[in-house]
Amino acid sequence: MKLKKFTLTLLPLAAILSLALLGCPQPTTGDDGGDVGGGDTGGGITTAKISFEAWNGAWAYNPGDALTKNDSNSTATQDETIVKNGSKSLKIEGTIQEDKYSSTKEFGMRLKADEILGVTSIDVLNKVFSLWVYVSANAENDAIQVALQDSSYNQAISNAVSLTKGAWTQVFFKLLPAGDPDNTKYNDKPCFVTVSDSTGTTVTAQGAYTGNIDVNAITQIEIRSLNGTIDNPAIVYIDDINW
After folding, report:
1. Which member of 66, 68, 89, 90 lies 3.0 to 4.6 Å from 97 by CB, making a disulfide possible if both were Cys?
2. Quick check: pTM over 0.90?
C-alpha cells in the first residue's frame, strides 16, 4: 500500500517536468518514465536523440516523386493522441503510391536529422538505430522501411519490417561498413541491416539497397510506410528515434 501511494505522488511531478520542457528548441532528453502500449497518451520523459516534444515541422519534408512514381502527398504534424514516450509523437499522413523503382506501395517523409541535432552529419556507423512505429488495427500500411541519406542524396535502405497493428512496434537496424563479416550483401559498400534487438548482435535481414553512400556525411532519415491500395489515405506514427 505504501509503494502505491508513493508512485501516485510521483506522477504529477513527471507531468510538470514534461510541460516545462515543451518549449525547448532541441529534442528533449532525460529519464524514460515508461509506457503501457499502443494508443497511449505517453508517459515519462524521453531519452531519445530525436523525439517530437518541441517540434515546429521545419525539418520534415515530403520527398514527393523522388520517393514514388507519383507524389505521395504526405504531411507531418506533431501529435498528442498516439504517443509512445513523453507527450508528443510524429504523425505522418499520406496517400499510398507506387515506389519509383519497384511495385512496392508506400508513402513517406524525410527528416533533416543533421538540422535537428545541430551537427554536420549523424554518426550511426556500427550503432543500433531504432525507432517506435504505430499503425492502427485496420491499417493497410502494415510495414516500415527506413533509409539513411547522405548530403549527395545517396542512400542505404533497410529491408521492410512488419508491424504489429494497433500497438507500438520498436524496430532496430545497424549500418555495417564494407568488409564487416555480418555484411554479407556487399563487399565494397556499407549495408543497413535489420537486427533483432537493441544489442544488435543478431542480424535478421540484409538491407534492401545501398548506393555510394558516404557514411561520414549522413544528414537525413527517410521513413517509408509500406503496403496498401494506391490513392488510399494512410497514417503512421513515429516516436523516439535513437542510435
Report:
1. 68
2. no
> 108, 129, 111: which is closest to 194 by C-alpha?
129
Q: How far is CA 89 from the centre of its chain?
A: 10
| Alpha-carbon span 151 to 153, nearest angstrom | 6
> How far is the C-alpha of 161 from the C-alpha of 194, rounded, in Å?
8
The confidence score (pLDDT) of residue 173 equals 98
Q: Name 123's Cβ contacts closer than 8 Å, sequence gap at least 6.
A: 218
Q: How many CB atoms lie within 10 A of CB 81?
A: 12
| pLDDT tens, residue by residue, 146-187 | 999 999 999 999 999 999 999 999 999 999 999 999 999 999
- DSSP bridge pairs for 193: 174
Fold of the 2-242 domain: Jelly Rolls (2.60.120)
All cell numbers assigned to 51: 523525439
What is the distance between the alpha carbons of residues 211 and 190, in angstroms, rounded to a whole number?
Answer: 9
**∠ Cα 30 33 37 (to 5°):** 130
Q: With H, G, I as helix, E, B as strand and everything else as coil, classify residue 158.
A: coil
Which residue, among 2, 65, 64, 58, has the nearest Cα to 25 in the 3D structure? 58
Residue 108 confidence (pLDDT) above 80: yes
- Average pLDDT of the chain to the nearest whole number: 86
d(CA 121, CA 220): 8
